[in-house]
UniProtKB/TrEMBL annotation:
<dbReference type="InterPro" id="IPR000587">
    <property type="entry name" value="Creatinase_N"/>
</dbReference>
<keyword id="KW-0645">Protease</keyword>
<dbReference type="InterPro" id="IPR029149">
    <property type="entry name" value="Creatin/AminoP/Spt16_N"/>
</dbReference>
<keyword id="KW-0479">Metal-binding</keyword>
<dbReference type="GO" id="GO:0004177">
    <property type="term" value="F:aminopeptidase activity"/>
</dbReference>
<keyword id="KW-0378">Hydrolase</keyword>
<feature type="domain" description="Peptidase M24">
    <location>
        <begin position="140"/>
        <end position="342"/>
    </location>
</feature>
<comment type="similarity">
    <text>Belongs to the peptidase M24B family.</text>
</comment>
<dbReference type="Pfam" id="PF01321">
    <property type="entry name" value="Creatinase_N"/>
</dbReference>
<dbReference type="InterPro" id="IPR000994">
    <property type="entry name" value="Pept_M24"/>
</dbReference>
<dbReference type="InterPro" id="IPR036005">
    <property type="entry name" value="Creatinase/aminopeptidase-like"/>
</dbReference>
<feature type="domain" description="Creatinase N-terminal">
    <location>
        <begin position="8"/>
        <end position="132"/>
    </location>
</feature>
<keyword id="KW-0031">Aminopeptidase</keyword>
<dbReference type="InterPro" id="IPR050659">
    <property type="entry name" value="Peptidase_M24B"/>
</dbReference>
<dbReference type="Pfam" id="PF00557">
    <property type="entry name" value="Peptidase_M24"/>
</dbReference>
<protein>
    <submittedName>
        <fullName>Xaa-Pro aminopeptidase</fullName>
        <ecNumber>3.4.11.9</ecNumber>
    </submittedName>
</protein>
<dbReference type="InterPro" id="IPR001131">
    <property type="entry name" value="Peptidase_M24B_aminopep-P_CS"/>
</dbReference>
Amino acid sequence: MTNHIEERLKRVEDKLVETGLDGFIVSGQRNVYYLTGFWGTEATVFIGRNRRLFLTDARYTLIAKQSITADFDIIETRAALEEIAKLLGGSDIKTIGFDEQVTYADYQHLLRVFAEYDLKAQSLFLEDLRMIKDASEIAAIRKACQISDKAFIDVLDFIKPGQTTEMAVNHFLDARMRHYGAECASFEFIVASGYRSAMPHGVASDKVIQSGETLTLDFGCYYDHYVSDMTRTVHVGHVTDEEHRIYETVLAANQALIEAAKAGVTYRQFDQIPRQVIKDAGFGDYFTHGIGHGIGLDIHEYPYFGTSDETIKPNMVLTDEPGIYIPDKYGVRIEDDLLITEDGCEVLTLAPKELIVIK
Ligand SMILES: [Mn+2]
């Protein structure tokens, strides 16, 4: 972990030089964790070309001292920005970057405290680095995916048509993943049965799962602060011919992307390749969302896909989640997490994808 953090800090310091900044103020719990190993809700970090400051209040000082192994000055304060400005006073640090996503109130605060400095808003300064995962990040995501895989196998026996509610399935998945070592759920699960499965983001309700329905489960967990994000759609009781055809189409789209995904594929192609499979089968109008997103410390992080000619890179971890949603009837989505390599990809979510019918 220490070496990984030192490498990340080195990349930030290189980026400071590239962008003409003398330093950068890090905001956001996950960005702070990424660069320090400290996990807590109150922390401000300043990375200068040869100055690293970590500021937190008394509740977190001990945790900071235990968890931060890279070379940082750890400072206890309840006025972090004022303290940074004071510590940098008289140094040759003049141009300071900050994340353009900060709130308006935080921006006003920065302007007040750093009135004597040249403040420069930065877009995706750390998010760009976070897109490429290192070995410790990949290990955590891999484990989170394995935990989700096991919970999926277990939930198949838990669901009793005509008795089990979506909410009970939600709670079961959550408890099962914790049982296998997860820290917690990585987002509010989607457990959508029957007509509700036509809603791509139908979170669990009190509805009882009935025979004859499809059931979409989109869930995941945190392991060592990194997420998994997986979707499987199962059928309950029996399957109609149309449901079968739609399932096989979504699976073919998911599989087409697994076969095509590798370093060098453009964001446009990444979205287009599976989408074309669904269009060719005549369901193009029913695939209404993007193909996927990056995962890591956040459940949704860069990159996102669409019309860009940027290319995917080795060690990105991306979701592959085509779906078909027939309004008021049902929907099917299948989602895997893919680790991109030079010449292909590794599927990290290995739960079965053949058509499953729960009796
Ligand atoms: Mn997803």
